[in-house]
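Data deposition worksheet. Section B asks for the primary sequence of the deposited chain exactly as it was used as input, without tags or linkers unless they were present during the calculation. Section C holds the resulting structure in token form. Section D is free text for depositor observations; keep each observation to a single sentence. Incomplete worksheets are returned to the depositor.
Section A, Depositor: J.P.
Section B:
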Amino acid sequence: MKNRDKKYLTGSDYINSTYKHKRFLLQFCALCSVLCVLFVSGCTRQDNMYKESRVLMDTYCSITVVSPSKEKARAAIDAGYAEIEKLDKYLNNFSPDSEISAVSKSAGAGPVKVSEETLDLMKKTIGISADTDGAFDPTIAPVLKLWKFSGRPASPLLPSGETIKNALRLVDYRKIKVISESSAIYLEDTGMELDLGGIAKGFAADKAVEAIKAKGIKSALVAIAGDIRGYGLSAGGNAWKVGIQDPRPENANSEKPWEDIFASVHLKDRAISTAGDYQRFFIKDGKRYHHIIDPITGYPSDSGLISVSVIAHEGYMADGIDTAILILGAEKGMKLLESMGLDGVLVTADKRILLTKNLTGNVDMLKKNYKVAE
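Section C:
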């Protein structure tokens, strides 16, 4: 659905939102791939923050752990990245050898046996699709492929209404069949395809955190592009501070858009994910076309929201719900968050900020041109 890249790191505690320029990532990670110690004011001799960055899941990832030793930190970080790498092989719909690609190739023909992890994520994905009345739908792939947003830059060619109409016939999450007994997944109709880009990174962050905890690490932060999962406190004894990228920066041509943030929140034992219309898009005849496609219309979402950040206990939930809310719009989105007990930061096209009740007074606004709605 939405192969999103979001937040980032500026300084010792800031995590950014989105950048997926491959050449930049490779250059940046060449500098950051060596495990480094971040000495933070207030750190004790026993606990330091160790951070390492890599390119996985076709994006920039970073893992930061609080540990009394470099050796223990190394083991935990390697364990976290091993989980991300494994899931990338299972869930990447752009790889012909992935489990998800195998399921799509067998659509209408028969079930495909998959790993425990892929089966688990598919069950979670179907649950979110049901909770959002199909606003989040992992079978959107046939329509999304028509828009050519995966290129750099995105192609400005518009698909015809007829091709979109035909592709929409293949979009229906209810036709995904999960066979738990044999650990298999089946797509009912020939031509259906899966795209878990809108939930896979959050799920991978969850699994990386589990692996890091198993190594005895008391506090860590995993960021896979903008899908971030943290637990415990930083070495300075504070909650992790996460920045939300400005969806309409003054300098639209900045070489470092991840450094342009409009707000920050504190993350403790939570995950955050941001979806926006600014991550992959093109402008044609004055209209913005972006990569988050409405499963009902087959066209880019036009709900009046330009950015949605969701905070949840688990990364997969935040990752899936933020896309759905961008499609549903502010009113339905806020009701959904409240009904599910989740928190969110919603940004409208006129730069108004809508916050769930628990976040009121707990979001630091960094730019005056964004106003929190009364």
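Section D:
Residues 1-44 have pLDDT under 50 and may be disordered.
The longest strand covers residues 48-56.
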